[in-house]
């Protein structure tokens, strides 16, 4: 942005005050020619007629020439002052508070810069050249001066009117191009190249905005671009702003541009996960080639037909030939991510908050589980509000599905239900059987998360002296270690299986393979979580139930603590012995649980309580004894 002295003052100082040297010409003649040239810059033209008449340099036949020269200079000065005033006002706005959204128009700035570099600079150079030629003249030749600058008379008038409309009405975006196009139709034909350059400068700015729009990731868009987010700066849905659409882009072409950009951003999400399929690579290559072709078209005065053909071909390939399979895979992955977020609790912060509320709210335990009870749903909404999570409201809701028996955890009665809106959009992808199996996993994960949170509270309560007995400390330490390890194991299994499914989706030839891929995924996940192993599933259920019973456990009763401790040891013995028979299914979990051979010593010997006080100390104790 240009700041400082106005251009007409710069021209005056640089061109004439320091460079005029008439070398031997009569002083009066030299002064008159200097005054005429300065007058052409819009400077000191008030008494030019009287001065020329008194010097005998002006005749009645040349009076009209002087009037034209004076008008030309004033027009030039007016153009320069309009530009300087606009830039000064724009600079002031930038420094004002809350100036976001009031930035100078990048299109208008480009037009003004182009006019300075062509029309105004050419006019200035003409005057400098004329100054050099007049040094050899012996008389004040007004006619010669007029002949040299008369071609600028109509041109500067039109440019001045155009600048006045552009700056006076604060034009932005496509409105700038509209004014320039209208003014070009009345410009002298000899200036066609100049105004072709103006339009090309506009098109290059538009190309940079289009290139940003066609990128594979979302970027903040200029407020002068004709595609804008619907709901704020970071929205993922977009709309066309009709008044910002350039003249050479009709409504149908604008819709195609919108569609291509939206689809490519959806496809671009796959690049973040390292998609390497051939159809993906082909689409990206095709897309980049079209961006280069668009740049070539916009680097010269535009032919609407070629631009329309480019976008029709581009849109057709993206929507049908290449993008179809990839777009389907993207949609499938998005729908699966919703399942992973809620049924497999990948939204960990949300479910941590829910478990905290379930632990603190006594009503949910006293409430009789039934399908008509809305308390779980209300708690789920409250937990979401606490962590500022609202996406779930159109996807799932929490409810009781049946009544628990006396020996069954009330957490086993909870389930997630797909919202009607989600069923309409993706219900065909997830059969009731799949949703039922997902809920089975959801309940298991919720119970483990609940137990882990409960044990964390008991663990931290030791700092306040609540668990001072050594046996109690050993019991809580061992149980906390087991549940923490089970949490880590489940997180590893879910992360690995979800990663494998996403990889299979990207490599699939069509979306028709999704049901079989989903069924295979569920079977592997259920197997890894022991749902298909009745004995291991029963032992896991007993472990969770033992933790849930600690809410009402009286730690001051030594007999109860001893019984609980014995029950835990027997449970872990059974688990390890069962694991010996099903090594393939539980090898990873057994390795994690048997940290420092903690539980193998428990299974193959009859240790004292002292030997099992803390799993993390076993290595140190063994080393000391050896």
Automatic annotation (TrEMBL):
Entries under Pfam families matching the protein: GCP_C_terminal (PF04130), GCP_N_terminal (PF17681)
Chief place of localization: cytoplasm
Family to which this protein belongs: Belongs to the TUBGCP family.
Domain Gamma tubulin complex component C-terminal: 335-599
Any GO CC annotation of this UniProt entry: spindle pole
Residue ranges occupied by any Gamma tubulin complex component protein N-terminal domain in the UniProt entry: 34-265
Localization in the cell: Cytoplasm, Cytoskeleton, Microtubule organizing center
GO molecular function, one term: gamma-tubulin binding
Lineage: superkingdom: Eukaryota
Protein name, entry field: Gamma-tubulin complex component
GO biological process, one term: meiotic cell cycle
Entry-linked InterPro entries: GCP (IPR007259), GCP_C (IPR040457), GCP_C_sf (IPR042241), GCP_N (IPR041470)
Keywords per UniProt: Cytoplasm, Cytoskeleton, Microtubule
Organism the protein comes from: Trichuris suis (pig whipworm)
Regions annotated as coiled coil: none
């Amino acid at each position: 942005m240009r700041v400082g002295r106005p251009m007409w003052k710069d021209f005056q100082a640089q061109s004439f005050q320091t460079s005029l040297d008439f070398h031997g010409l009569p002083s009066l003649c030299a002064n008159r020619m200097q005054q005429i040239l300065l007058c052409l810059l819009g400077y000191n033209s008030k008494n030019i007629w009287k001065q020329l008449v008194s010097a005998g340099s002006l005749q009645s036949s040349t009076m009209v020439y002087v009037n034209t020269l004076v008008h030309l200079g004033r027009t030039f000065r007016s153009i320069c002052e309009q530009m300087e005033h606009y830039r000064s006002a724009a600079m002031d706005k930038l420094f004002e508070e809350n100036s976001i959204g009031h930035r100078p128009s990048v299109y208008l700035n480009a037009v003004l810069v182009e006019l300075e570099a062509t029309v105004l600079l050419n006019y200035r150079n003409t005057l400098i050249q004329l100054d050099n030629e007049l040094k050899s003249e012996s008389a004040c030749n007004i006619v010669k001066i007029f002949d040299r600058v008369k071609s600028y008379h109509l041109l500067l008038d039109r440019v001045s009117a155009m600048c006045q409309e552009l700056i006076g009405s604060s034009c932005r975006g496509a409105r700038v191009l509209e004014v320039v196009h209208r003014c070009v139709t009345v410009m002298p034909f000899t200036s066609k190249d100049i105004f072709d350059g103006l339009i090309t400068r506009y098109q290059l700015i538009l190309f940079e905005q289009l290139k940003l729009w066609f990128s594979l990731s979302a970027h903040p868009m200029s407020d002068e671009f004709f595609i804008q987010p619907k709901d704020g700066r970071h929205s993922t849905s977009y709309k066309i702003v009709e008044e910002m659409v350039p003249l050479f882009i009709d409504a149908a072409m604008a819709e195609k541009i919108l569609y291509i950009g939206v689809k490519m951003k959806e496809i671009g999400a796959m690049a973040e996960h390292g998609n390497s399929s051939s159809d993906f690579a082909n689409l990206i290559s095709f897309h980049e080639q079209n961006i280069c072709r668009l740049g070539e078209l916009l680097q010269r005065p535009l032919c609407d037909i070629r631009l329309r053909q480019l976008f029709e071909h581009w849109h057709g390939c993206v929507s049908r030939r290449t993008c179809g399979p990839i777009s389907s895979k993207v949609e499938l992955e998005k729908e699966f991510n919703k399942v992973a977020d809620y049924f497999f609790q990948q939204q960990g912060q949300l479910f941590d908050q829910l478990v905290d509320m379930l632990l603190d709210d006594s009503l949910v335990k006293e409430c009789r589980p039934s399908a008509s009870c809305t308390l779980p749903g209300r708690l789920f909404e409250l937990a979401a509000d606490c962590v500022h999570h609202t996406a779930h409201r159109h996807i799932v809701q929490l409810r009781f599905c049946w009544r628990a028996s006396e020996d069954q955890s009330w957490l086993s009665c909870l389930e997630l239900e797909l919202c009607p809106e989600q069923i309409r959009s993706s219900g065909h992808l997830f059969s009731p059987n799949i949703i039922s199996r997902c809920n089975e996993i959801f309940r298991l994960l919720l119970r483990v998360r609940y137990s882990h949170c409960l044990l964390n509270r008991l663990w931290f309560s030791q700092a306040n002296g609540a668990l001072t007995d050594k046996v109690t400390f050993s019991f809580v330490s061992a149980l906390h270690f087991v549940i923490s390890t089970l949490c880590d194991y489940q997180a590893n299994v879910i992360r690995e299986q979800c990663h494998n499914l996403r990889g299979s989706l990207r490599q699939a030839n069509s979306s028709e393979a999704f049901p079989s891929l989903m069924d295979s995924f569920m079977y592997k996940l259920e197997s890894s979580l022991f749902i298909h192993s009745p004995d291991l599933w029963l032992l896991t259920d007993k472990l969770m139930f033992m933790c849930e019973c600690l809410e009402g456990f009286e730690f001051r009763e030594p007999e109860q603590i001893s019984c609980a401790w014995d029950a835990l040891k027997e449970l872990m013995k059974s688990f390890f012995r069962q694991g010996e028979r099903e090594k393939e299914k539980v090898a990873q979990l057994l390795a994690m649980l048997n940290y420092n051979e903690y539980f193998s010593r428990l299974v193959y010997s009859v240790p004292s309580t002292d030997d099992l006080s803390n799993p993390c100390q076993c290595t140190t104790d063994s080393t000391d004894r050896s």
